[in-house]
Amino acid sequence: MLCIVAAMIGHTLLGLLEAGPSHGYDLKRAFDDRFGRSRPLAYGQVYATLSRLLKNGLVQVDGVEHGEGPERKRYAITAEGLTDVEQWLGRPEKPEPYLQSTLYTKVVIALLTGRGAADLLDTQRAEHLRLMRELTDRKTHGDLADQLICDHALFHLEADLRWLELTEARLDRLAAEVAG
Amino acid sequence: MTAPLLTASGLRKAYGPTTALDGADFRISAGEVVAVMGPSGSGKSTLLHCLAGIVPPDAGELRYRERDVAGMSDSERSALRRAEFGFVFQFGQLVPELSCLENVALPLRLNGLRRRAANEVARMWLDRLEVGEIADKQPGTVSGGQGQRVAVARALAPEPRVLFADEPTGALDSLNSERVMQLLVHAARETGSAVVLVTHDARVAAYSDREVVVRDGRTRDRLGWAA
Fold this sequence. Notes:
The complex is a heterodimer.
Chain A: H1 2-17, E1 22-23, H2 24-34, H3 43-55, E2 59-65, E3 72-77, H4 79-90, H5 102-112, H6 118-141, H7 144-169, H8 171-179
Chain B: E1 4-15, E2 18-29, E3 33-37, H1 44-51, E4 59-64, E5 67-68, H2 74-84, E6 85-88, H3 100-110, H4 115-128, H5 144-156, E7 162-166, H6 174-191, E8 194-198, H7 202-205, E9 210-215, E10 218-221, E11 224-225
Parallel strand pairs in B: 3-8, 3-9, 6-7, 7-8
Antiparallel strand pairs in B: 1-2, 1-4, 4-5, 9-10, 10-11
Helix pairs in contact in B: 3-4, 3-5, 4-5, 5-6
């Protein structure tokens, strides 16, 4: 999972560099403005990613500024970097199968241990709706980027809720199967 | 917490051999938006119909501002609905022969407002719901989303104390649904109307302050299942 996140950050920084050469600091700000509202990039992540991209020939140092503080490198995307972005955008993401669901496991364990799972499902439903309210409020008062980010989360939470509802309707059958 | 506007406890309602409500509780305060959720056939629409005084419960207590609604006659409940409540349904149920403006003005005229004043208020509400440009069109010639905004304007124009909305976005696509909900909740909060929102759609329910779940005719809120 960490590798996937690191690769996505790399591709994103490359994509931002397509607009023109930039310093690490400005790249971090551009990333945070567009994608990192709830989880900004750490400086260490930015520089570690840029040095990896440099090593792989996907970016090059376009210039170095010497000032009072540490020297500032300006990075530019290379032709290989452009190809890499192009390929990344054209490649579909692997759909998440969600087959190892903690919720499903909890439901089965609750039934196996004779606790009943209806309360568990109800508590989870209330928690999902609480988060959906928060996201809806953020969406209502936010800009288009906020709306799209929140919608993505809201649709996934809604899918979870549908599963909770369906599982609730099938609890008796599941309890019989688990007991058998 | 402010005193509840509308309270129900132990509501029961059967249609022939079918029990629709089997001891449902409910309360809502002024300005609150409460979502009533539950699977199809769980009794949520029946709960709304009882709360709104459209059908009388067979048993249980139902009070609106300390008045006993369960004990009212049909005409008393009808007067209460007209004076205090507003309604939005899945399909706007606008009068097809009237223009959108006349549809919104209709309940105001029924409440005794003169034509010119009613039309002015209606126009203001159409603007508020961002459909001022279709004021003179007939409902059959506007889109589903526009029609539903007209229905919301008509329901809120008399500034009801309680707005009952039964799947208000059920016939709309995601974008229209979202905008109608934003406008509905915003306008209701501005007028201080409480909203009872029946929906099976979690994204619509997320516009509420809290939810009440109906299952097999019984309700559950954060306090647990009703007795």
